């Protein structure tokens, strides 16, 4: 007997959520408030049933090299999660030296059963604006020597992706995959971490430690403005704004996100003289999101313009789904405006906004030329997998 892929994915998402709740207790508050907001929110269920929305999470992880990303891809494939889209966060107003993709189910039925997704970023060590040749060589040596995943776990993941997971193996497999994303208690080399922090806090979080970890786990809410108010009333410091499109009276589009500020977490350090001591790091935060209808390419072009002129949103987007559908701005199943296709992906500008607003200070890239040639095709080649174009998936979902 094998376990259904979606059941394995749901078990993985739930196990990560339990682990993250013990690591970051404020996350549990966020989930409680999100659940309450969803319960209190009048919804017609068109953007997802209360049950799906309340169970829905996305995670974020960060790795250092193409080889590590390839292992992540093998691991997630066992859960029916495949790479979709390419995000270059170096292009943001305040650049972060990573390129990213999102691992998620690609079929409508699979998303409906369990939509778990993980935004996955890889350190762009080839980019000379962030890494001098000397630092690049040392980072790559450090990354080459660490092992994020037990090779036997990756072999097992490949077998499960090909043949399914025997029921008897499921619990243990999920437990070991989850443990691979736990926050490490190993001492952090203080000087190395500080050197990388001078380049970017994200570079230090990725390559300053010998393991990877969940950076955040994000619940979905139906009313993010109401969530923001309730969290603030509880005395939790949120970042200044909700990222993404403004609240409007018309159909919600794409994705709106906000977060509470990263909290200081106890970590252990090793000083230059070898002594080990306690300290803290502020890297992990509590994000929350609301999802709307997926925009077509034409809708997305219009969105990008509207974002520069947010007070006049209604000059760019109509007030009803019927008009959105008629103008070909958003995806609806079978063209029926009562059946929006939910946006399942991410927004690089908000992603960079979330990154940025959670850093106490971040370095600026130098003026050197970008010598990396990162792109969707580059990433697909580097991990040896097709990376889905999100628009293809939305076209299919709408047809
Ligand atoms: C990922 C940031 C992007 C989102 O929801 O846009 C992201 C990270 O901080 O590693 O998770
Ligand atoms: Ni996120």
From TrEMBL:
<keyword id="KW-0560">Oxidoreductase</keyword>
<dbReference type="InterPro" id="IPR047869">
    <property type="entry name" value="YdcJ_bac-like"/>
</dbReference>
<dbReference type="Pfam" id="PF07063">
    <property type="entry name" value="HGLS"/>
</dbReference>
<dbReference type="GO" id="GO:0051213">
    <property type="term" value="F:dioxygenase activity"/>
</dbReference>
<dbReference type="InterPro" id="IPR009770">
    <property type="entry name" value="HGLS"/>
</dbReference>
<comment type="similarity">
    <text>Belongs to the 2-oxoadipate dioxygenase/decarboxylase family.</text>
</comment>
<protein>
    <recommendedName>
        <fullName>2-oxoadipate dioxygenase/decarboxylase</fullName>
        <ecNumber>1.13.11.93</ecNumber>
    </recommendedName>
</protein>
<keyword id="KW-0408">Iron</keyword>
<keyword id="KW-0223">Dioxygenase</keyword>
């Amino acid at each position: 007997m094998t376990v259904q892929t979606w059941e394995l994915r749901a078990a993985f998402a739930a196990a990560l959520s339990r682990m993250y709740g013990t690591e970051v207790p404020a996350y549990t508050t966020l989930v409680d408030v999100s659940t309450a907001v969803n319960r209190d929110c009048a919804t017609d269920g068109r953007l997802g049933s209360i049950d799906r929305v309340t169970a829905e999470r996305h995670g974020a992880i960060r790795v250092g090299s193409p080889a590590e990303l390839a292992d992540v891809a093998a691991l997630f494939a066992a859960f029916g999660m495949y790479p979709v889209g390419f995000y270059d966060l170096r292009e943001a107003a305040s650049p972060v030296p990573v390129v990213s993709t999102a691992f998620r189910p690609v079929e409508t039925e699979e998303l409906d059963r369990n939509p778990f997704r993980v935004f996955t970023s890889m350190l762009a060590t080839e980019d000379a604006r962030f890494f001098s040749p000397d630092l690049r060589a040392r980072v790559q040596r450090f990354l080459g020597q660490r092992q994020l995943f037990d090779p036997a776990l990756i072999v097992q993941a490949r077998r499960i992706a090909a043949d399914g997971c025997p029921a008897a193996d499921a619990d243990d497999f999920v437990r070991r995959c989850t443990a691979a994303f736990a926050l490490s208690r190993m001492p952090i080399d203080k000087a190395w971490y500080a050197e990388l922090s001078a380049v970017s806090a994200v570079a230090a979080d990725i390559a300053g430690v010998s393991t990877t970890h969940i950076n955040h786990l994000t619940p979905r809410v139906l009313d993010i403005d109401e969530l923001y108010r309730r969290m603030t009333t509880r005395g939790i410091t949120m970042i200044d704004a909700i990222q993404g499109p403004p609240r409007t009276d018309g159909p919600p589009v794409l994705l709106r996100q906000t977060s509470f500020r990263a909290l200081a977490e106890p970590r252990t350090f090793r000083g230059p003289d070898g002594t080990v001591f306690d300290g803290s790091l502020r890297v992990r935060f509590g994000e929350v999101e609301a999802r709307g209808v997926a925009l077509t390419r034409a809708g997305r072009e219009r969105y990008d313009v509207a974002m520069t002129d947010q007070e006049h949103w209604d000059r760019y987007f109509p007030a009803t789904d019927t008009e959105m559908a008629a103008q070909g701005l958003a995806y609806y199943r079978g063209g029926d405006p009562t059946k929006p296709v939910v946006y399942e992906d991410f927004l690089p500008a908000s992603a960079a906004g979330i990154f940025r607003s959670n850093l106490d200070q971040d370095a600026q890239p130098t003026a050197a030329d970008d010598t990396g040639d990162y792109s969707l095709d580059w990433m697909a080649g580097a991990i040896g997998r097709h990376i889905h174009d999100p628009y293809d998936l939305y076209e299919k979902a709408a047809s």
